[in-house]
Amino acid sequence: MTHSSPRTTSRLSSYCDGLNRREMLSVGSLGGLGLAELLWMQESFAKAKGKPVRDINCIFLFALGGQPHQDMWDVKPDAPSEIRGDFNPISTKASGIQISEVLPGISTVTDKLAIMRSVTHVDSDHGRGYHVMMTGKRPGAGDFNGNQNNNHHPCLGSMVSRLGTPGELPPYISVPNFLNSGGPSFLGPSYGPFVIEADPAAPDFSVRDITLPTAISTNRNARRQAVLREINRFERQAETVGRSVRSLDTFYQKAAGLMTSKKAKEAFDIHRETDKTRAEYGMTSVGQCCLLSRRLVEAGCRFVAIENGHWDTHRKNTYSLKDLLCPSFDRAVPALLNDLEQRGMLDDTLVVISTEFGRTPQINQLAGRDHWPNVFSIAMAGGGVKGGQVIGASDRRAAGVADRPITPGDMTATVLNLMGIDPHQILHTPLGRPIPLVDDGRPITELT
Question: 79: burial class by Cβ within 10 Å (0-12, 13-18, 19+)?
């Protein structure tokens, strides 16, 4: 561990005198403390309070395309038929909370869920909606529907990767592909996701690049890494060495760590689960992605992003929800929450169910609903969240916020806050420009 400078020693003293964990992480990012110092401070604080070091992990389930809130989370049975749709409300395990009949499985775990019915922003474009909901920051000019890694601001996973406590597994993993606007922006590629470009529901599912080629022995691999370290040492001594080389070195180290880690191999091997457990989640993409995510956070990953797509119901909304989309989603979510609880992991695992926007109150001529960012619903569970509650409300037509508006910035600040990261701290771009993690959002206090 590096020795503390006088300025650092002063901060250590104030920390041990009662600086909380979020303040500690803020001090680290602002004052340039090394990672070893941050970890030492965290452990010292925990010991001073007589508590073990506790990190909250996050499973971020993103429903790509825009879930129709009035057909799922925020049913309006008294609205005209062209607004309320074809689904009726049903009672749930949480007294006084009703959701749609198309979510009977989720109705059994609403005591664990906090449903936020008043999320709002102004971007009705898919790409821009992805960005604002993945980062908490509204994107600037440009087309956000092309290159996925076009972030103007780091996404939540990259923020956690940069500021959270590292482990044996990559801190930020994306499954079953790179999630739109899931990139690191100015933080650099070393804080981007480890992408599992495969569907865990496939019979031949495996994660590439976490095992050595069969032709390379352990000794040969060790020699290769020794040569690589020497090359990197000379590169770092050159005046022209840049950030890209250092990032590449980080990737090499991460790759080597994964290939030699038994724990990582086992975490990625979903076939180690029993057939019964896999069936409980459902042998679907979203079901097996949720199961794999549980395995990954159990093994030490801090943030897993799941893409659950095809919610863009411009036509045949009722058929799409009832027969195609909701059955697998409604099976996977309660299976994940119940499994986490049974394993004693729910208190330490924040589950976020998000989407880029809602759908129009009025059903269109194709029996579908179009894009609608004015108001929509998201949900959270675990990680210190108080379940069995609804926060905020939409109006009687599910067209606008009637009570307690919640912004994407609020959601981002909440996730970071629950994970022990100060959402208001400042990071710096490579050119030294100060950038707040969240510049327009506050944690949702009702959740805890």
Answer: middle
The tens digit of pLDDT for each residue in 37-89 reads 444 444 444 444 444 445 899 999 999 999 999 999 999 999 998 899 999 99
DSSP letter string over 139-168? --SS--SS-S---SS--HHHHHHHHS---S
Distance CA 90, CA 320 (A): 20
pLDDT tens string 25-40: 433 333 333 344 444 4
> Alpha carbon of 53 to those of 21, 59, 126, 270, 375: distances in Å?
10, 20, 39, 28, 38
For helices 156-163 and 21-31, give the axis angle rounded to 10 degrees.
80
- Residue 440, classified by CB atoms within 10 Å of its CB into exposed (0-12), middle (13-18) or buried (19+), is middle
377 phi, psi to nearest 5 deg? -120, 145
pTM: 0.81
pLDDT band at 256 (very low <50, low <70, confident <90, very high): low
Options 1.10.240.10, 3.20.20.80, 3.40.50.10330, 3.40.720.10; which CATH number does 57-207+267-447 get?
A: 3.40.720.10
Residue 174, phi then psi, degrees to nearest 5: -120, 135
Q: Is beta strand 57-63 parallel, antiparallel or unpaired with respect to 349-355?
A: parallel
How many residues are present in the chain? 448
Tell me, what's the pLDDT at 181? Answer: 93
- Domain ranges in the chain? 1-54, 57-207+267-447, 213-259
- For residue 298, the surrounding DSSP H or E stretch is helix 285-298
CA distances for 87 relative to 48, 49, 90, angstroms: 54, 51, 9
Report the DSSP pairing between strands 172-175 and 303-308: parallel
Type and span of the H or E element at 303: strand 303-308
> What pLDDT is stored for residue 443 in this prediction?
97
Contacts of 188 (CB under 8 A, 6+ apart): 243, 247, 430
pLDDT in tens, 331-361: 999 999 999 999 999 999 999 999 999 999 9
Residue 394's nearest CA partner among 381, 386, 405, 407 is 405
Under 8 Å between Cβ of 160 and 427: no
Q: How far apart are CA 167 and CA 267, in angstroms?
A: 13
C-beta of residue 407 within 8 angstroms of C-beta of residue 415: no
Q: How many CB atoms lie within 10 A of CB 306?
A: 24
